[in-house]
Write a structure and sequence with these properties.
Strand order of the largest sheet: 2-1-3-4
Oligomer: single chain
Bound molecules: glutathione
Number of helices: 9
CATH class of the largest domain: Mainly Alpha
CATH topology of the largest domain: Glutathione S-transferase Yfyf (Class Pi), Chain A, domain 2
Shape: globular
Order of helices and strands: HEHEHEEHHHHHH
């Protein structure tokens, strides 16, 4: 309340205002606490146990309560039904109360805004983008193989991916050498998710990238990694 304004109600009015403001304040605090609690308890993550994009979000949500609902996104009927939840027909999708958030990047942003995850620095965002480039290229190669196409230099679609993967890995290796994946941060979660997935699908070996292997090994003791290993 602005104390410079004339108070037509005198002392009693002031008292009333104070009491009212205090009451309003506590109502707001209780209301916010309830909203946050309700929101935490109402979270549902749609995903799969193999997707590297889903896994990075599961790792980031380790300390949160949420329901994990598996979607067989490549099954025609489930895919069709899932369109009601996300027009993109891609995993992950987060439902938080009445809010539906699709794409791992937007989900992470949502978790920063409403569930106190650390915001990413520009460097961290760049690390995640490089991991995405690797992930997307590997996924295209995987889908090429699954579609029984010739996954080699003869096709521009695959040539571009095959040409991108080594320089991205070299760049990530250098970043690992400089300690970028030492903290248990979102870029590290994204990196380990794609490394494990690439091996799980027999798409990429990391033998030539000792710094990346060492960075992953330094986090191997975390139970959440075993709990979310690709299956
Ligand atoms: N940019 C998206 C990529 C998500 C993505 O590609 N998800 C894959 C699973 S790893 C998917 O749902 N694929 C189904 C499809 O492409 O139809 C994100 O960051 O969430």
């Amino acid at each position: 309340m602005n104390t410079n304004t004339v108070d037509p109600y005198g002392v009693y009015g002031k008292r009333w205002s104070l009491t009212f403001n205090q009451a309003l304040g506590s109502t707001l605090i209780v209301g916010l606490a309830q909203a946050q609690k309700a929101s935490v308890n109402n979270m549902k993550l749609y995903g799969s146990t193999s997707s590297p994009y889903v896994r990075r979000i599961r790792l980031a949500m380790e300390a949160m309560e949420y329901e994990f609902e598996q979607v067989a996104i490549h099954d025609a009927a489930e895919r069709e039904a899932f369109t009601r939840i996300s027009p993109l027909r891609k995993l992950p999708v987060l439902e938080d109360g009445n809010t539906v958030v699709f794409d791992s990047h937007v989900i992470y942003q949502h978790l920063v805004e409403y569930h106190r995850l650390d915001p990413l620095s520009v460097h961290e965002a760049q690390l995640v983008t490089a991991v995405d480039a690797l992930a997307d290229s590997l996924i295209i190669l995987f889908l090429g193989e699954k579609s029984e196409l010739p996954v080699d230099e003869s096709r521009a679609l695959f040539r571009l991916q095959l040409g991108r993967i080594p320089p991205v890995l070299d760049w990530l290796e250098q970043q690992a050498k400089e300690g970028a994946f030492s903290p248990w941060s979102y870029p590290t979660m994204a990196l380990i998710s794609i490394m494990d997935w690439a091996e799980f699908r027999n798409l990429q070996s990391f033998e030539r990238y000792p710094e990346l292997l060492a960075a992953r090994a330094s986090h191997q003791h975390r139970e959440i990694l075993a709990q979310t290993a690709p299956a």
